[in-house]
Amino acid sequence: MAIADVAAYAHLSDADITELGRALDAIRRDVEDGRGARDAAYIRRTIVSQRVLDVAARIMIAVSRGRVGWALGVTGLTLAKCVENMEIGHNICHGQWDWMNDPEIHSSTWEWDMAAPSSQWRYAHNVRHHVYTNVLGMDDDIGFGVMRVTRDQPWRAYMILQPLQNLLLALTFEWGIALHGLYAEYERSDGRAARSGHTTAFLGKAVRQIGKDYVLFPALTGRRWRRTLTATVAANIVRNLWAHTVIFCGHFPDGAEKFTSGVVERESEHEWYLRQLLGSANFTAGPLLAVLSGNLCYQIEHHLFPDLPSNRYAEIAVRVRALCEKYDLPYTSGSLPRQYLLAMRTVHKLAVPDRFLRADSDDAPETASERKFPVPAPPAHGEDNAVRGRRGLRTALRRPAQRRAS
Fold first, then answer.
1. N- or C-end of the chain: fewer Cβ atoms within 10 A?
2. Integer Cα distance of 26 and 310 in angstroms
3. Which of 83, 34, 57, 51 minimizes the C-alpha distance to 290?
4. How far apart are CA 350 and CA 344, in angstroms?
5. Could you give the CA distance from residue 299 to residue 333 in angstroms, rounded to a whole number?
6. In this predicted model, what pLDDT tens digit does every residue of 19-73 receive, in sequence order?
7. Of 108, 105, 132, 113, which is closest to residue 44 (Cα–Cα)?
8. DSSP character at residue 363
9. pTM
């Protein structure tokens, strides 16, 4: 089932984990010390470019004739919404640009173009998810409360409809995220008055969002309001599908591991790094795809350093990959289609009861634990490493596959 002993699963000693953590601390310090005008210019340029694209797309929708103009306008509006949500809103709300001390680009003041109030999302995401990444019973993002993505989650009869639930979630993803944040606030609230306040905030943002997208902008185009309305609906649906794809590719493909709640009871900062590394997955992307995904194609780096500027993740990834090589750890990555298909395989496979599944519950593609490995434990840190090289998790993962192939 889920991993209960992270060090044993990773085949690292305490000394290894400390060394790895210190190396990651050094990466953080280097990036923090190097932040400056180039990074500030990047986020300001991105915000201006996104707003220009948004306005241009809306004008194209309003004044153009025929389907081609409408399609071009929808494409531009969709791209603008993706950039605003992923590269701008998501990352600003993480505090990645708080160091600039710009009140307009700050996690405490930014309100993004999504149904979820930023304040509610920040708690559900920055705390519940990022602190307790993939810890069962603590990270609500494991299936978002409606999906079974690990065999640690008991099967229920309604889960046979999981493929349809997943499609519905993808189409309405911004609203799923909004409700997810609201329920997280409910869980930490004391009393009916506090919950009522969160509900009021949620409904206020929802009304403003619906009014802006589906009433105000269509009304501004007069008799062509239907054209504007259908364009907005189309752009929001595609944006939702894209956000769903990016999130699922970073959290649910093979190799993004899950953990029992016991792992966090005495977890050090360096052990936290290791859990983030093992619980996340990347997908390959060029510069344009990286911006459209909020640089979450570097999900591993984002989970290691969620508050460092997203435009630095590409250079951070080079150093993180080198550390994975040094400590013989897997660096889980693949093409976008591959990672998405792996995540969807898990969603569809786990819709059925475990008795219809073939792989062992400790050694399945979507659910693994330290119990998949035979004893004895890995050698102590430094033992013959200079002679035979380090043998860590990556090497250990190859052995079961080699035995199955033989």
1. C
2. 18
3. 83
4. 10
5. 9
6. 999 999 999 999 999 999 999 999 999 999 999 999 999 999 999 999 999 999 9
7. 105
8. B
9. 0.92
